[in-house]
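thought: user wants a sequence for this fold. calling inverse folding tool.
action: design(structure=
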């Protein structure tokens, strides 16, 4: 199984609650733990502007590339603007395109990055500049390598950008399971939303997720499933209010991979959020997701 990664994923945020060094640390941990060999990593090219324009407005793309976002637009991103940020998000979008292509070839593939599910066609917010997953789905549809896709979003925050982008699109089924009383407000409706109470723990979370997966996959058969595997439902997360344990998060990953693979559906994994008090916990959660994804790939 291939892991898509670039050192350019680092968003250059400095001292920020979003630890963008986590991508590099996660890739290094995969090597150290023997989950991946150096040759299992694939370096993505940046998405083309035409690919990005399959989702985002040309005017927004121009502002990003010329550094002409307004003060309010940068405030809404909640991360500082820099040329490195723009390079990072274009490469992450290229990474999710490549991850989708590799998942279709190998059954499972993972982007050691991406999952920027709060980006909208005309603006970014909540640390998300470009919606890499939506760009990948639109590109794969344009190439006619897939017709139908599903997003399974287990980040603690609802996938508002995903819901908005695919709202009127019957070819993409959006499923989000998240903490109800948390950003974003409002939450545009996904095809299936599961709103969880504050403090929901492993057992209730896993039961709700299993019900949701069976419901979604019972009514919609995708050619490819994008798993947005946020680490922030963890009980030690600074921006999340759910109470999953490390073991519960691993069970979550097994459930998503298992339900998809049992139906023969290829899975493309992206990392999304993670703000644990201890950075090593966030890295451990992401690395565990990727190890379980590799087990789901079955020896590739
Ligand atoms: Zn999140």
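)
observation: tool returned 300 residues.
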């Amino acid at each position: 199984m291939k892991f898509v990664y670039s050192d350019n994923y680092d968003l250059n945020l400095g001292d920020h609650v979003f630890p963008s060094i986590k991508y590099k640390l996660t890739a290094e941990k995969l090597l150290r733990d023997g989950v991946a060999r150096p040759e299992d990593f694939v370096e993505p090219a940046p998405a083309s502007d035409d690919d990005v324009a399959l989702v985002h407005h040309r005017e927004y793309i121009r502002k990003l590339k010329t550094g002409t976002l307004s003060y309010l637009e940068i405030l809404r991103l909640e991360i500082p603007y820099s040329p490195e940020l723009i390079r990072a998000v274009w490469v992450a979008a290229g990474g999710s395109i490549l991850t989708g292509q590799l998942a279709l070839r190998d059954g499972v593939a993972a982007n050691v990055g991406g999952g920027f599910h709060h980006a909208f066609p005309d603006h970014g917010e909540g640390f998300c500049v470009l919606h890499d997953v939506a760009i990948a789905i639109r590109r794969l549809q344009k190439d006619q390598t897939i017709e139908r896709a599903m997003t399974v979003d287990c980040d603690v925050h609802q996938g508002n950008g995903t819901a908005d982008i695919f709202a009127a699109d019957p070819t993409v089924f959006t499923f989000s399971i998240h903490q109800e009383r948390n950003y974003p407000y409002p939450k545009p409706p996904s095809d299936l939303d599961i709103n969880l109470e504050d403090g929901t723990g492993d057992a209730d979370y896993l039961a709700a997720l299993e019900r949701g997966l069976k419901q979604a996959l019972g009514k919609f058969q995708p050619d490819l499933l994008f798993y947005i595997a946020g680490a922030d439902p963890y009980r030690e997360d600074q921006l999340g209010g759910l109470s999953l344990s490390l073991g519960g998060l691993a069970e979550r990953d097994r459930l998503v991979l298992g339900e998809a693979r049992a139906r023969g559906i290829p899975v493309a994994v992206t990392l999304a959020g993670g703000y644990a008090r201890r950075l090593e916990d966030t890295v451990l959660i992401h690395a565990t997701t990727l190890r379980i994804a590799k087990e789901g790939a079955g020896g590739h």
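thought: summarizing for user.
answer: Here is the designed sequence. Residues 155-157, 230, 232, 272-273 surround zinc ion (CB under 6 Å).
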